[in-house]
């Protein structure tokens, strides 16, 4: 057993699969890190919604957005705020996951009319990450730093 954090961080294990590091020193913080993931995801979604709806910061991409993007921005504004607070987290994250899947297919993969399959070529990497991060949050719950947890609803 290691006695210091630096020993735990640098401890390497050799197995039949090769050399890899163990990060068990993070294990006690899993619940808090789940909350941090939820909060940061909500803040990033809120950033997009503010740019779409309030034009801050001013971005040429969001200058004249169609009604579908306004609707998406509204969903991201309200549900992003709920995600930050950790209120109705599982339902909120599930809806956001679906919205991001829709955003990927409608706004990225088929934006030219012809399918562009690779996310690096269609700009959809962020939508995919949001989709699966929100899907994970819908499954894992809000973490301890949330209104849901304080209400006993995680």
List the helices and strands and how they pair.
Layout: H1 5-10, E1 12-15, E2 18-21, H2 30-53, H3 67-85, H4 89-109, H5 119-122, H6 125-140, H7 147-150
Antiparallel strand pairs: 1-2
Helix pairs in contact: 2-3, 2-6, 3-4, 4-6
Description of the molecule:
It is a single chain. Helices cover 61% and strands 5% of the residues. It is mostly helical and 154 residues long. The chain has a two-stranded antiparallel sheet with strand order 1-2. The two termini are 34 Å apart.
- What portion of residues belong to β-strands? 5-15%
Arrangement of strands in the largest sheet: 1-2
For the termini, the CA-CA separation is 34 Å
Low-confidence stretches: none
Element order: H for helix, E for strand: HEEHHHHHH
Largest sheet: 2 strands, antiparallel
In short:
With 154 residues, this protein is mostly helical. The chain contains 7 helices and 2 strands, in the order αββαααααα.
């Amino acid at each position: 057993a290691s006695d210091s954090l630096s020993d735990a961080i640098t401890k390497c294990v050799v197995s039949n699969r090769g050399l890899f590091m163990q990060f068990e020193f993070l294990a006690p913080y899993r619940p808090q890190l789940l909350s941090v993931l939820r909060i940061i995801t909500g803040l990033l979604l809120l950033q997009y919604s503010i740019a779409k709806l309030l034009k801050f910061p001013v971005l040429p991409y969001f200058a004249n957005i169609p009604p579908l993007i306004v609707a998406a921005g509204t969903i991201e504004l309200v549900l992003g705020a709920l995600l930050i607070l950790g209120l109705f987290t599982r339902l909120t994250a599930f809806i956001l996951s679906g919205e991001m899947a829709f955003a990927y297919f409608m706004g990225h993969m088929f934006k030219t009319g012809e399918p562009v399959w690779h996310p690096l070529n269609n700009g959809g990497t962020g939508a995919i990450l949001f989709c699966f991060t929100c899907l994970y949050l819908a499954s894992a719950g809000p973490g301890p730093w949330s209104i849901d947890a304080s209400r006993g609803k995680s």
